[in-house]
Specification:
The chain is α/β, with parallel strands linked by helices and 513 residues long. Strands 1-7-18-17-14-12-10 form a seven-stranded mixed β-sheet. The radius of gyration is 24 Å and the shape is globular. It has helices at residues 44-61, 68-76, 90-99, 145-157, 178-189, 201-215, 219-224, 242-253, 274-295, 322-338, 355-371, 391-408, 415-418, 420-425, 436-441, 457-462, 468-482, 490-505; strands at residues 32-33, 63-65, 80-82, 85-87, 104-106, 115-117, 121-124, 132-135, 139-142, 229-232, 239-240, 257-260, 263-266, 301-304, 306-310, 317-318, 342-345, 375-377, 382-383, 388-390. Helix 6 (201-215) runs antiparallel to helix 18 (490-505) and helix 8 crosses helix 9. 43% of the residues lie in helices and 13% in strands.
Length: 513
């Protein structure tokens, strides 16, 4: 076996691993409760001022809405429409905030995979929206079905990744059939909450039909049970395009969750200050929220934000920056001000899985934690500001996320934890390795890493001098080699296969723009 491929095998939490002896230590990574009080970047008065400025943006400056149906919905509710510009009064925003749910329950394929978006609860995701995949064995390449399937196996393997993002797109599948492949892989290789692209009503309806079959739901039950989600990216500044507008309508009509997320880069698509960028982002999110609640009051909507800055020398996105950290804190304050569950993001702008990539992702992720985010996207594997997903970085980032999850667990303070008897047992100048207190607990006392190596230099050399990134290769290879860990009911699988075959015979569905 090569030096790169001989990495240590990984362990996951909360299930049997096909690649290693499961750890005796058990932590509930599927339901993470954030113990840290949210940190403020601005005062409460400034939050209120920012919110009111965003309302002024919607009232006085308006937002461009390219979908005629969406403009009609706004207009019928009392918004002023002039051409493609929609001017939304604050009363419509206030009504939408009253009807939007304050908590959201997403149902997974099994109960363990259910996600509860509520104050203090966090759900993590790996990289999403990447056109390319990269690893140390095969190099950087356009994303394929094989890449998507392999990354789904990796996502399924680790409980700390709570639901499925649009990891990488299978570009070797024709666009009019890609959504069938996309959904089939998610529904057969994982039991976590899946993602659906908003690329026009025909594709969305196909995906909804596949979801109903896979989960055994009637149309009526589907509309009452949130089992999938989409991400709606506004075209900052101040524009909602046709597929995004249609997606807001489709998901609201069918009771599925929209994460409304402006991608606002300070100095480029948004004002150069964190507060100014968040004023624009907040306005765009509220505009999308209003549309969903006009379509279906009570439709599940997650407040979304992804705000960072650009490198003013090149115009390229920068991530893990102090400005992104501050923007996340402000976003958390705004989400709590309007009372909605909210999504933030981590990520990295580095070109490869190096120390810069690790630092940027960790800095960004800690920003989301201290901001009190409910959903953290791009927390594992994201490189090049989303242009690629790295298999090795996926593994090393999961290590970081699992350590965070362990930090979230309560610290014991019982009489046994205080260890008076252990201190009594060990003589001054002695050690605690063999005392009764240690022997009772040593197998479960500490987090056991999946890729970190704590040996000394000599032992590290004897083991092949592998870096953490190189060790990660062997870990993902073992996960992929183990294959699928879930099985769909045979009758449902046959029904879904028949539906897909019929739709393909009818010509499939091209994305709409």
């Amino acid at each position: 076996m090569s030096r790169v491929a001989a990495g240590r095998r990984g362990r996951r939490r909360g299930g049997n691993s096909a690649t290693a002896r499961p750890s005796a230590r058990q932590t509930n990574y599927s339901q993470l409760d954030n113990p840290f009080p949210p940190v403020k970047a601005i005062s409460d008065d400034q939050v209120e001022a920012l919110h009111n400025t965003s309302l002024r943006v919607l009232e006085e400056l308006g937002i461009k809405v390219l979908l005629p149906k969406a403009r009609d919905i706004y207009q019928q509710a009392g918004a002023r429409v002039e051409g493609e510009m929609v001017y939304i009064g604050r009363e419509l925003v206030e009504e939408a905030l009253r009807s939007a749910p304050k908590t959201i329950h997403l149902r997974g394929g099994i109960e363990k995979r259910d996600i509860h978006l509520q104050p203090g609860r966090m759900a993590m995701q790996c990289a999403g929206g990447c056109p390319n995949a990269t690893d140390l064995v095969r190099g950087r390449r356009p994303g394929s079905k094989r890449d998507f399937d392999e990354l789904l196996l990796m996502c399924q393997h680790y409980d700390v990744l709570n639901f499925i993002p649009p990891i990488v797109e299978p570009q070797d599948v024709a666009t009019h059939e890609r959504h069938y492949t996309w959904m089939d892989s998610q529904l057969t290789l994982t039991d976590k909450v899946p993602f659906v692209f908003s690329r026009g009503r025909p594709q969305v309806m196909d995906c909804f039909a596949m979801m109903r079959i896979a989960r055994g739901l009637s149309e009526a039950e589907f509309k009452q049970t949130t089992v999938c989600y989409t991400v709606i990216n506004t075209n900052s500044p101040r524009q909602i395009d046709i597929p995004m507008g249609q997606g807001l309508i489709d998901f609201a009509e069918h009771g599925q969750m929209s994460i409304i997320t402006p991608f606002t880069l300070m100095g480029a698509m948004a004002p150069i200050t964190p507060a100014g960028a968040m004023t624009l982002s907040h306005a765009e999110t509220l505009a999308g929220l209003v549309l969903t609640q006009l379509v279906n009051p009570g439709a599940p909507v997650c407040y979304g934000t992804f705000t960072s800055n650009v490198d003013m020398k090149s115009g390229s996105p920068a991530l893990g920056t102090p400005e992104q950290f501050k923007a996340n804190l402000i976003a958390g304050q705004l989400a709590r001000y309007v009372g909605l569950p909210w999504r933030s993001a981590s990520g990295s702008a580095a070109a490869v899985a190096d120390v810069q990539a690790a630092h940027e992702t960790q800095m960004g992720t800690w920003g989301t934690v201290l901001a009190g985010a409910n959903v953290v996207m791009h927390a594992a594997g994201w490189l090049e500001s989303g242009l690629s997903v790295s298999y090795e970085k996926f593994i090393t980032d999961v290590e970081m996320l699992q350590i965070m999850a362990e930090v979230f667990t309560p610290t014991g303070g019982t009489e046994a934890d205080l260890a008076f008897e252990a201190i009594k047992e060990v003589e001054p100048g002695g050690h605690f390795f063999a005392c009764a207190h240690t022997m009772e607990r040593f197998e479960t006392a500490f987090y056991e890493p999946i890729v970190y190596d704590w040996c000394n230099y000599g032992t590290w050399v004897e083991r092949g001098e592998q870096t953490a990134t190189e060790r990660a290769t062997g870990i993902w290879q073992a996960i992929v080699a183990a294959g699928a860990q879930v099985t769909m009911d045979g009758e449902r699988q046959a029904h879904m296969d028949a539906f897909v075959a019929k739709r393909k015979a009818e010509g499939g569905a091209e994305p709409e723009s």
